[in-house]
Amino acid sequence: MDVYSWFRRSSSRPQSTNNGEEEAIFGVTDQLIDFIKTLSLDTFNNFPLQDEEGANYGDGPGNVRKDLSEWQARHAMLVLSKVKEMSQLRFRLCPGRMKERQFWRIYFTLVKSYVAEYELRAIRLEKLRQMKTENENISDPSMHEVEMLETRSSALLEHNFDSPTHDIGTEKE
User: Fold this and answer.
1) In this structure, which of 89, 163, 166, 171 has its CB flanked by the most CB atoms within 10 Å?
2) Whole-prediction pTM value?
3) Whose CA is closest to 111, among 37, 9, 15?
4) How many CB atoms lie within 10 A of CB 26?
5) Are residues 67 and 101 in contact, defined by beta-carbon separation less than 8 angstroms?
6) DSSP class of residue 39?
7) With left for phi above 0 and alpha for psi between -120 and 50, is residue 37 left, alpha or beta?
8) DSSP state of 38
9) Residue numbers in the chain where pLDDT is lower than 70
10) In this structure, are residues 29 and 79 in contact, taking their beta carbons and an 8 Å threshold?
11) What is the C-alpha to C-alpha distance for residues 6 and 77, in angstroms, rounded to an integer?
12) Distance CA 107, CA 47 (A)
């Protein structure tokens, strides 16, 4: 699936009810919006991409899930839905003048100073979630071992208490 299809399909989905909160999480601030509105066709057409970056974003099917992180893809969707100038600019540039991947590479380079802290926060939160999941997975087997040990211990204790009482009762008879 190419980037255009993914964006078209994603934009037709119902939006979150906490859109303001989501915009804050994904760095779609008033300052960013003001900056985006200053971007033009020339900004993108004259942007110097180094050969390595250009080579990575040449021909071939563009898949947003491979080209952009999940955070970047959601950020891009919010920007396109909130800033009509950006949506129009993308429409005029892609795919006629440049590939989607190149467009988003330039965009994220241009807005880096506006969104870096938000993206970094998202990366940190994801790492914390992964660490929590790993810790839960690691602690689960030991919890089962402790539970099994406690069960065995209580069974032995019950057996030890039952046996002498049973023996004493047997001796009296």
Assistant:
1) 89
2) 0.63
3) 37
4) 22
5) yes
6) -
7) alpha
8) T
9) 1-18, 51-66, 139-173
10) no
11) 10
12) 10
Tokens standing for 72? 């970047």
**pLDDT at position 85:** 96
CA angle 44, 118, 71 (to 5 degrees): 70
What type of residue sits at position 109?
A: T
Q: Which long-range contacts (CB under 8 A, 24 or more apart) does 110-116 make?
A: 110/39, 110/43, 110/47, 111/32, 111/35, 111/36, 114/27, 114/29, 114/31, 114/32, 114/35, 115/26, 115/27, 115/32, 115/75
CA distance 124 to 69: 14
**Identity of residue 52:** E
DSSP helix/strand/coil, 68: coil
**Residue reference for tokens 């690691």:** 138
Residue range 50-69, pLDDT digits in tens: 754 444 443 334 444 468 99
**Single-letter amino acid, residue 170:** T
The answer to whether the CB of 118 falls within 8 A of the CB of 128 is no
Token pair 């100038």 in the structure block, residue: 85
Nearest by Cα to 118 from 67, 78, 62: 78
State the Cα–Cα distance between residues 2 and 65, nearest whole angstrom: 10
Return the domain boundaries, the chain. Answer: 3-110, 117-173
Predicted local confidence at residue 33, as pLDDT = 97
